[in-house]
Amino acid sequence: MIGERKRNETYEGRRGCGLNTRVVRVDKDNPDKTVLQEVGEVIKKGGLAAFPTETVYGLGGDGLNAGSSQKIYAAKGRPSDNPLIIHIADMESLAQITEDVPEKAKKLAEKFWPGPLTMIFKKSDRVPYETTGGLESVAVRMPSHQTALALIRAGGGFIAAPSANTSGRPSPTSAAHVAEDLTGKIEVIVDGGEVGIGLESTIVDFTEEVPVILRPGYINQSMIEEVIGPVRMDRGLLITDEKVKPKAPGMKYRHYAPNAELTIVQGSTEKVVQYINEQCLALQAQGKRTGVIGTDETRKFYQGTVVKSIGTRQDEEGIARHLFGILRAFDEEKADCIFSESFDTPRMGQAIMNRLLKAAGHHIIYL
Ligand code: TXA
Ligand code: MG
User: pLDDT tens digits for 199-249?
Assistant: First the structure.
């Protein structure tokens, strides 16, 4: 049986309830085919398996099986109107689950698939409404992670997979994060080590006249526009007005939130450090535990509080990769209030700030 031979005892049974979740380790670039074949069988039979992708870990089930999608919502505690992405491993599969794939989308696929890009099209009849949260459209992605691709093939070709976290918690960037949230709730966790990107895929909606970015990610707006010309950002992403709803149902929910109250502080380094130090002192005087998300450059300036560095400002991909892990780490610290520097970096700043702002419930101080 899967996992009996490579069970990771540290994850096992931590939050046991219901299922005996097995953890199988694979070499991420050269995964053991027999192991993935067995995990694929679990998925084909309607079970659930978490697996690494280049963005975050996914919680996979058979995307063409309504019952599997229902199980995914239940395991995550996710509202069932929040649609799932179907992961595929080749272009032939795209035609089977969609109608009307525009030329521009084909161009983007040629450039960025396999990779951290999800595209939304009109769905074909093969895709059950349970997978699309009742919508007529379907989100599709071809990941570049070798383990993910091999598992998709082994699992029947169409793996529905949201991020493998409990709904509302930061997305998982390691198998240990998945185990924290889903032990006892799914059959298998495929441990392929840390992910490469650390933020979820860019989502582009092709069901509108002009393609719309519903979620920013590693592939940014200008990279997309270089290939297909103008696209627009979903208004719900740019405006914090409660009445303007984002089009991706998942983007409307409070998300990624650590247990502590998170505040982002933006301004010159000097002012930010001074403000955060003052706030931490005042809060500690009230008996609160405080924390700071700083950088390698600034961590030494914060005093008398728990400080975690997200990495150096010289490496924005590192900042993106560490964000969700650092939010989880503050839950372990049992912090009451966390302050974070702002990370409006040149290439991935939009994606990083989108996640950070959601985690903070849009609470940001400008100095
Ligand atoms: O990188 C990723 O995309 C990861 C990995 C596992 O592939 N997956 C992921 O899935 O982030 P999830 O379910 O956590 O986020 C998918 C987002 C949600 O906000 C959902 O509402 C939106 O995509 N979405 C899915 N199908 C949609 C559709 N047909 N129309 C509009 N939004 C859709
Ligand atoms: Mg998610």
Answer: 999 999 999 989 999 999 999 999 999 999 999 999 877 666 666 777 777
| Cβ–ligand 1 contact at 63 (below 6 Å) | no
Q: Chain-wide mean pLDDT for the chain?
A: 92
Residue 29 has a pLDDT of 85
Ligand in closest contact with the CA of 55:
1
pTM for this entry: 0.93
**How many angstroms is it from 291 CA to the middle of ligand 2?**
25
Q: What is the pLDDT of residue 2?
A: 45
* pLDDT at site 9: 34
Q: Is the CB of 88 under 6 A from ligand 1?
A: no
Q: 206: which 2 tokens? A: 């092709």
How close is the Cα of 232 to the center of ligand 1, in Å?
A: 18
